[in-house]
Amino acid sequence: MAIGLRKLRHVVETARFESVTRAADALLITQSALTRSIAEVEAELGIQLFVRLPRGVRTTEAGRSFVEKALRIIGDVNSLVSGVEDYRNLRSGRLRLGVAPAGYQRFVSEAVASLAGENPSLAVEVTTGSSETLAPRLTSGEFDAIVGHARLLGRWPDLEVTDMADFYLAMMVRKGHPLSVNTKLLEADVLKFPLLLPSTIEPLQNGIALRCARNGLPPPNPQYVFDDFELVSAIIDRTDAYTPVISLNPSFGRLRERFLLIQDVVELPSQHLGFAVSRTRSQSPAAIAMMEKLKATLGTRQS
């Protein structure tokens, strides 16, 4: 017969109260049930835990040793349960988030900051890279989730990808660019200019290559390759290059005030922000909370 945690508590409470009656009241069971439980433990161990007195009980030497060890076991179990509750309620634990490509960090920064602010005991790690390098690490358990380009993440059958938001796409050039005087722009008019391409935006590069081929133009060979947006902006300001930009805001915010944004001319595939988790591993509480926080912040930013 196994001695479970419930019976350990029966012995410990009886020792604490030195009374079967009072211990039974504290445990919310009948006196006969408690007496039977203690007898079963003694029979299983082959030792006597209590000496029965006219008024109450007293632990034997073996009983005192057993109770000391039982208290440690019960304490460890309570600590384990408490730790699990802390983990589930984000009072402990770690969120390991991948972002692919690195330029997508600006779309998750508000959600990450909000989650960290509301859960100060939660550790947060954000790692950037390409979907090709991060997705295998998600399937192996190194990450809790990845935020990235939904279509690219969808290439991995072991990942469950949720579309979080649609991107708005434009080609950005400087104000006063030669294209600004053309009121009837064609794709080829834009694509013939030098291309500035963020090094981590593979989907856009592939799409631009297809549009160049469709228009009889040579494959794009980006003249400038940067990821830092301040440097991108400086180059666009000083050259005739164009660069694709994406935004969760259809108005593109202040970007439209500073640059000329060309929309609905270059036909690129739709872009979606995705949230990926492993299909074969249970989601961590931190990953679930991050997804909900991202939904809330993205909904606000698109309105």
TrEMBL record:
<keyword id="KW-0238">DNA-binding</keyword>
<dbReference type="GO" id="GO:0005829">
    <property type="term" value="C:cytosol"/>
</dbReference>
<keyword id="KW-0804">Transcription</keyword>
<dbReference type="Pfam" id="PF03466">
    <property type="entry name" value="LysR_substrate"/>
</dbReference>
<dbReference type="InterPro" id="IPR000847">
    <property type="entry name" value="LysR_HTH_N"/>
</dbReference>
<protein>
    <submittedName>
        <fullName>HTH-type transcriptional regulator CynR</fullName>
    </submittedName>
</protein>
<dbReference type="InterPro" id="IPR036388">
    <property type="entry name" value="WH-like_DNA-bd_sf"/>
</dbReference>
<dbReference type="GO" id="GO:0003677">
    <property type="term" value="F:DNA binding"/>
</dbReference>
<dbReference type="InterPro" id="IPR050950">
    <property type="entry name" value="HTH-type_LysR_regulators"/>
</dbReference>
<feature type="domain" description="HTH lysR-type">
    <location>
        <begin position="3"/>
        <end position="60"/>
    </location>
</feature>
<dbReference type="GO" id="GO:0003700">
    <property type="term" value="F:DNA-binding transcription factor activity"/>
</dbReference>
<dbReference type="InterPro" id="IPR005119">
    <property type="entry name" value="LysR_subst-bd"/>
</dbReference>
<keyword id="KW-0805">Transcription regulation</keyword>
<dbReference type="InterPro" id="IPR036390">
    <property type="entry name" value="WH_DNA-bd_sf"/>
</dbReference>
<dbReference type="Pfam" id="PF00126">
    <property type="entry name" value="HTH_1"/>
</dbReference>
<comment type="similarity">
    <text>Belongs to the LysR transcriptional regulatory family.</text>
</comment>
